[in-house]
Amino acid sequence: MGKNGNRPMILTEDLWKTYEMGSEKIHALHGVSFEIRQNEYVAIMGPSGSGKSTLMNVIGCLDTPSQGKYYINDRLVSELSDDELAYIRNKEIGFVFQTFNLLSRATALHNVELPLIYNGTPSVERLERAKASLVKVDLGDRMGHKPNELSGGQRQRVAIARALVNNPSIILADEPTGNLDTATGVEIMNLFERLWEQGNTIVLVTHEHDIAAHANRIIHLRDGRIERDEIVRQVEAQKPQPQTTEAAT
Amino acid sequence: MNINLTESSKIALNALRTHKLRSFLTLLGVIIGVMTVITVVSIIEGLDAYVKNQVLQFGSDTFSVQKFPNFVTSFEQFLEYNKRRDLTVEDMKAIEERCEKCKAAAAVQSKNGTVKVGTQSIEDVEIRGVTVNAPFMGQIMELSEGRHFTDFDIDHAAHRVIIGADVAEKLLAGRDPIGLELKINEVPFEIIGVAKKTGSFFGQSLDNFVRIPMTMYQRIFGARDSVFIQIQAYRESEVPQAMDEVRLIMRSRQHTPYNKDDGFSMETAATFIDLWENFSRGIFVVTIAISSIALVVGGVVIMNIMLVSVRERTREIGIRKAIGARRRDILVQFMIEAITLSGVGGLVGALLGLSIAFVISALSPLPVTIRWWSVLMGMGLASSVGLFFGIYPASRAAKLDPIVALRFE
């Protein structure tokens, strides 16, 4: 998988994303450069309109930058075809959304299986891995339930299990607690903490300080630029050290 | 990939179950289209088997010489053929004597009339004048009782009659018919034989006849009408040579100049089958034209409903793309849905078509052959409609931008 500590897992160089609104050009990303190494726990913070959603979409390969380079595990994403992007989304990235985004007609187990279906995993292995993934998020007893039979926290855990099932390089969480009450939010954040401790790389997009505070490193975005990139919690020596790459403005 | 297939068809079937009325209206066009095809196919297949069976009974080594061809397509033609000379028993005898490839020949003539036994009578019985070979050629007549005509009966215009099974049933009800007296147009005959029952053709009984010697027939009805001559070759392969010989004999008897057309028509079982096949092919073409209109309309409706479905499920498509579905995966998913949807329509249409065919065969004399593969054919037909009209909605779904789709409310 190319997860080695020395090479950055994610590397962006001068990312621009420009939208044209009539004659006006709007820069959602204004030259963003940073890198994320294996087993980092990064929060991308900023007010709405700061470009954090755009950045997340680019990192998640749902969107492509207008300019600049984005490497994920040394692969230059901006040059990939549609199918290759789908492959990266499938294998390298595990999405967790604010609104959970589960298929409402499918059971928890089937939702978790879905990414494996799209990469052609044989059915026996698929079932095993989906089950294991649900056990990891403590939903071993809810596999046959459909999303509307689960609580908000449980739904989000199904989504996390789905994100984990392909052993992605990074877990990309977009306001994962935005639709949950505080207690459940804490529960989910504890789960992320645990996943990070198990060696996963987590990128969290949020506008809440309390949530961002769970991460080890916070990238502050404002007006499409990185305002501040700070390490908020030092981790043990064997974990790779994040680097402060830029402090623009 | 294959779970994607079963899953997609499940989604489609589920949608059918939850929106029954909508699904029915959606599939109406396809149902009607397939139903029409299946009904017509069943009827044509039935007629086909029936006609061929009947024609083959006529015998593939046998052909006929007649004044009119089997099919006259216009009144002008009829007038033209009507000018031809009547064929006579002498023509038949000449053929029998001079044609070397011919094994036997027979002449038949018929008219409807009234027959009577005692005080009981039936009208509209086919009265046939025959020569001695007639029962053994073409549609063979077997007897259940009694004997056939002999040369003596024919030559001496014997007052003897062989009766069909219907006549025996209606007039003699259980009595031993042999030796009883039967009157045809008030002329008395002695019953010498009863024919075996042969059934009916298009609802018309084939057993409602009496046979008398040709000589006797012409005494009663006159010798003015043309006779129907049947000729049997020694072998099926020699039919063409036999026909050539007969043609020469007939042309010389009728003094036809070399540059004029025949003054008679010759027909074989094969020419009849050819005609029939042309006819049934025509019906097929018309049916396919009509049902393809229904199928195209049905296809457009399916396309429309699929576009609605794609719109309703934009978010689902976004989710699937976010977790790694390629365009192809989405395309296949919606294609399968369209095909499943229309395939169900095809199944319903095929079953309805078969039921209609079944009812027709039960209520009318039309013979109907129910072929179970026609269900598969109907489903295949409908599925290809779904395939074709599913392409556009499915490619719309596949081309959706994942971010736009995910944000869709």
Describe the protein.
The complex is a heterodimer of chains A (249) and B (409). Chain A contains 7 helices and 10 strands. Chain A has helices at residues 52-59, 82-91, 108-118, 123-136, 152-164, 182-197, 209-212, and strands at residues 10-21, 24-36, 41-45, 67-72, 75-76, 93-96, 170-174, 201-206, 217-222, 225-231. In chain A, the strands form 2 sheets. A 6-stranded mixed sheet of chain A has the order 6-7-8-3-9-10, with helices on both faces. A 4-stranded antiparallel sheet of chain A has the order 2-1-4-5, covered by helices on one side. In chain A, helix 3 (108-118) packs parallel to helix 5 (152-164), helix 4 (123-136) packs across helix 5 (152-164) and helix 5 runs parallel beside helix 6. Chain A is globular and about 50 Å long. Mean pLDDT of chain A is 88; it is low at 243-249. Chain B has 2 domains: 2-53 and 284-407, no CATH class; 101-230, no CATH class. In chain B, helix 1 packs across helix 2 and helix 2 (20-58) packs across helix 11. Chain B starts with a helix and ends with a helix. The mean pLDDT of chain B is 87. Classes of the chains: A alpha/beta (249), B alpha+beta (409). The interface between A and B is medium-sized, with 26 and 23 residues.
Task: Please give the structural blueprint.
The complex is a heterodimer of chains A (249) and B (409).
Chain A: E1 10-21, E2 24-36, E3 41-45, H1 52-59, E4 67-72, E5 75-76, H2 82-91, E6 93-96, H3 108-118, H4 123-136, H5 152-164, E7 170-174, H6 182-197, E8 201-206, H7 209-212, E9 217-222, E10 225-231
Helix pairs in contact in A: 3-4, 3-5, 4-5, 5-6
Chain B: H1 2-18, H2 20-58, E1 62-66, H3 75-82, H4 89-98, E2 102-117, E3 120-130, E4 143-146, H5 151-155, E5 160-163, H6 165-172, E6 181-184, E7 187-195, E8 200-201, E9 204-205, E10 209-213, H7 214-221, E11 228-233, H8 239-253, E12 265-268, H9 269-312, H10 314-322, H11 327-363, H12 373-399, H13 402-407
Parallel strand pairs in B: 3-10, 5-7
Antiparallel strand pairs in B: 1-11, 1-12, 2-3, 2-6, 2-11, 4-7, 5-10, 6-7, 8-9
Helix pairs in contact in B: 1-2, 1-11, 2-9, 2-11, 2-12, 4-8, 9-11, 9-12, 11-12
